[in-house]
Specification:
Helix 3 packs antiparallel against helix 4. The chain starts with 10 loop residues before the first helix and ends with a helix. The chain has helices at 11-27, 67-79, 89-98, 103-110, 121-130. The protein is an all-alpha fold. The longest helix has 17 residues, at 11-27. The protein contains five helices and no strands.
Length: 131
């Protein structure tokens, strides 16, 4: 039996450990005992990396992606299993029907042009949003 995911210390001890380590973590000094395990800074030819990237605001969309594409991509992910791409329109429609996708989504997919393969779920969502 695996111990993965089981906490041996309990929540109270976890809180105590967090308090003990808080000062060390915020000090900016190395907390690792073995030097070879220490994180190394970015090289001169590499861009600096923000250790704590700012998460996107809820409801925001990535640059170059419309909210409609995000919505469609999420809906496609619920009904398309991990599948080898590229997919042509007829394969997409058949797969959506097999996975009991809503008729509205199947109808949108059926309107896609079949003259090209769709390389990813994002590609399909972009085609559905444009159509």
């Amino acid at each position: 039996m695996s111990d993965r995911g089981q906490n041996k210390t309990g929540p109270l001890r976890d809180d105590e450990l967090k308090k003990e380590l808080r000062g060390q973590l915020l000090s900016g000094h190395e907390t690792r005992a073995r030097e070879e395990r220490a994180l190394e800074p970015s090289g001169e030819d590499q861009p600096a990396v923000d250790p704590m990237p700012v998460p996107p605001r809820p409801g925001s969309t990535p640059p170059g992606v419309t909210p409609r594409e995000v919505e469609l991509r999420g809906e496609l992910a619920r009904h398309l299993s991990r599948r080898a791409y590229p997919l042509h329109r007829d394969e997409l429609v058949r797969t959506l029907r097999d996975h009991h996708a809503p008729d509205r989504l199947v109808d949108l997919a059926a309107r896609l042009p079949d003259d090209r393969p769709y390389a990813s779920a994002q590609d399909i969502a972009r085609g559905l949003a444009d159509g």
